[in-house]
Amino acid sequence: MSVREHPKTSSLRADTSIGTRMRMVRATAHMRQEELAATLGVSRQTLIQYESDHCAPPYRVLHTVCEEFGIDGSWLLLGGPSSEMFRSAPKGAD
User: Residues 60, 65, 11, 19: is their CA dihedral positive or negative?
Assistant: First the structure.
């Protein structure tokens, strides 16, 4: 099942934080924190800080999330309906 087809995406809310949306992306991709941290080139502890909104992820990290998972940048930054989560098919999805 691709990230785009995951049933959890239908329950995403528009009033969530960037950290919460990053956690949602990770969950829909069925990734552990260690895996996403490696993909983003950060430590697990740093990812935890992003997901808990203790610090904001830099542009490079946000860009990588969007590119690797086909996430719409506006949705990641600002939220919105779950139907707007993806801009295109995630990288490697067929």
Answer: negative
**Has residue 90 been placed in a domain?**
no
pLDDT in tens, 38-60: 999 999 999 999 999 999 999 99
Q: At how many degrees (to 10) do helices 44-51 and 18-28 cross?
A: 120
CA distance 66 to 35: 16
Per-residue confidence band for 70, with pLDDT thresholds at 50, 70 and 90: very high
Whether 89 maps to a domain, the answer reads no
Contact at 8 Å (CB) between 22 and 58?
A: no
d(CA 74, CA 38) in angstroms, rounded, equals 24
